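Hey, quick one: can you model this chain's 3D structure?
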Amino acid sequence: MNKYELAVVVSAKIEDEERNAVVDKCKALIERFGGTITEVDDWGKKRLAYEIQKMKEAFYYFIRFDAESTAPAEIESRVSIMDNVIRYLIVRQDEA
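Sure thing. Here's the predicted structure for all 96 residues.
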């Protein structure tokens, strides 16, 4: 099992319930592909470095999880087509 972190930038134009549903869907995808969520870090609403889809702010979430090496590709392919997800990135965390 490897340690990974999924960074998700969610649209600020949606309601709280919808935003929570997007994050829950991301967590469900991780578990669906054999991952174990260790931590969910909610950074809240932050200003974007540059305007994306006419938005200047968005909500940031960081989900840390353990999974096999095949899981990130599967998760990324599903997250990339999710509505209200502006940007996403999965990185492997090395043991330091």
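One thing worth noting: Strands lie at 2-11, 36-52, 55-67, 85-93.
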